[in-house]
Amino acid sequence: MRDFWRNSGFHLLRRNERGWLTVTDDFLRAYYLRPEVHPLEESGDAELALHSSLMAEPRRVVEEAEFEAVEDEDARDNYRVVLRFRDRLISAGTIEGSYAGLFRAGSVDIPPLFIEQMAHVILRNVLDGGEDPLRLRAGELFFRDQKLNLQESTILLADLETVEMHAAGNAYGSIGRLIVEAQTSLKSVELDVLDRDNAELYWKRESRHDTVISINHGRAALEALCRVIEAWVGHFHGIEVRVKPLARIDEPRWAWHIGLDAASTSMLNDLYEGIEVDHGRMRRLLSLFRMDFVDASDMRPDIAGRPVYMALSASEDDVVRMKPQNLLVNFPLARAS
To answer: Which of 26, 28, 49, 91 has the most crowded CB, counting CB atoms within 10 A?
Structure first.
């Protein structure tokens, strides 16, 4: 089996009997080594003492007086944020439990970066042992924003951070700028478009985030995304579903829908309520999906046996910001997972 996403922290964690990732001291220490809280040369004695004590005892309670003693105000605030996140992890016991609980509580009080990192390591666990590089690249949508580029009706997604780095001239000069301005095809620059015939490229470059996928209907990467969604649902809910791409929704009054991002949620809500959606919004709808429960008894009794429709869209600034948590909090289960 090939290793991948080594920067996710997966190797610092252990699985429990459910297959979820148990929080370990080494995983917590990795957060204390982040640049936001790792001491600098100019750090004061109180900050150095706090950091040293946390590295020795990653779960120790930090008193308010210890925060206040840290000399640098930014460092003080950063410690509070990181330790609030740490406390959530410790309280839940698992990464998955912390992730799911964050959204079910209805109050998100940690930075988006930490949420993305949890999704990253959870999906690394979900896809462990996988040999399909297209699934791994499609899975990056769960925790990395993507830049949309339309080339003659071809829907291409490139990693947003990579595109912005290129555009700033930090990597390949003007390549990213050309992408951003849509003046050249992604296929003609150094970002390779992955498909079945060249998917093996991903193994050498999976940490560089410099490959592109097409999610047009019928393309292999879109099918791969369906398999990742199935695996994510199965991991969290313990049920089996089947997901397939759709060209359109033919059911005039469907039973349930899930937007895989904020734009899709709003759009599907309006369509369900019979509110007209203008062409500008509709053009940002990139993919439709149908999800079927293998065992209808796993669904809410009032809609058992009926499909769940899903959509993935780009925002007004042509960015795809997938929200995999929507598959947890807006899911029509017959029981609480």
So the answer is: 28
Q: What is the rounded CA–CA span in Å between residue 195 and residue 200?
A: 9
Question: How far apart (Å, rounded) are the C-alpha atoms in residues 54 and 66?
Answer: 12
Residues 253 and 282 sit within 8 Å (Cβ to Cβ): no
Instruction: Using the structure block, give the residue that is written with the tokens 């995999």.
Output: 324
Phi-psi region of 260 (alpha: psi -120 to 50; beta: other; left: phi over 0): alpha
* CA 102, 104, 108, 114 torsion-angle sign: positive
108 vs 234, more confident: 234
Largest CA distance in the chain: 66
Distance of alpha carbon 251 from alpha carbon 66, whole angstroms: 60
C-alpha to C-alpha distance for 222 and 308, rounded to whole angstroms: 18
* DSSP single-letter state for residue 256: E
* Residue 329 tokens, joined: 């909090």
CB atoms within 10 A of CB 220: 19
Give the HSE-up count for residue 165: Cα atoms under 13 Å, Cβ half-sphere: 12
What is the distance of C-alpha 269 from the center of its chain? 22
Q: Is the predicted pLDDT of residue 137 greater than 50, yes or no?
A: yes
* % of residues, the chain, pLDDT over 70: 92
Q: How many CB atoms lie within 10 A of CB 309?
A: 21
Number of Cβ within 10 Å of residue 283's Cβ equals: 11
Task: Give me the pLDDT at residue 170, please.
Answer: 54
Summarize the confidence of residues 262-266 as an average pLDDT.
95
In one letter, which amino acid is 157?
Answer: L
Stretch 252-270: mean pLDDT, rounded? Answer: 94
pTM of the model: 0.91
Split at pLDDT 50, 70, 90, the class of 189 is: very low
Query: For the chain, which residues make up each domain, given as ranges?
Result: 6-126, 133-214, 220-329
**End-to-end CA separation in angstroms for the chain:** 30
